[in-house]
Amino acid sequence: MTVAVKKLADYGTDDHPADDPERVQISWIVVALDDCEECDDPRVELTVEEVGKQGAGLVGHLSPDSARKLRAALSIALKEMGEPAGP
């Protein structure tokens, strides 16, 4: 019997004002998991949902390559803003 792994990497909320009439405030959760039966490899699970509406968000199961592509896109966006890309 194999034991499934689901480990929280981090979570948070955006720091956009909650009272903006045009954009909702979101929360995000990142998890490492290997219990996706339809997937052939471990995945990074990314959940994005509106603050206060837990369970009604979108969940993505990213392959390692897709997770790296998202990480690179975030790094590019930070550089475009004049911010350092690393911790």
What's the helix-strand series? EEEEH
> How many runs of DSSP E, i.e. beta strands?
4
Estimate nothing, just give the exact number of structural domains.
Answer: 1
Q: Could you say which structural class the secondary elements and strand pairing correspond to?
A: alpha+beta
Distance between the termini: 38 Å
Strand content: 25-35%
Chain-averaged pLDDT: 89
Binned, the helix content reads 10-25%
Tell me which oligomeric state these chains represent. Answer: single chain
Strand order of the largest sheet: 1-2-3-4
Low-confidence stretches: none
Described by the principal axes of the CA atoms, the overall outline is flat
Tally of separate helices: 1
Quick one: biggest sheet? 4 strands, antiparallel
Radius of gyration: 15 Å
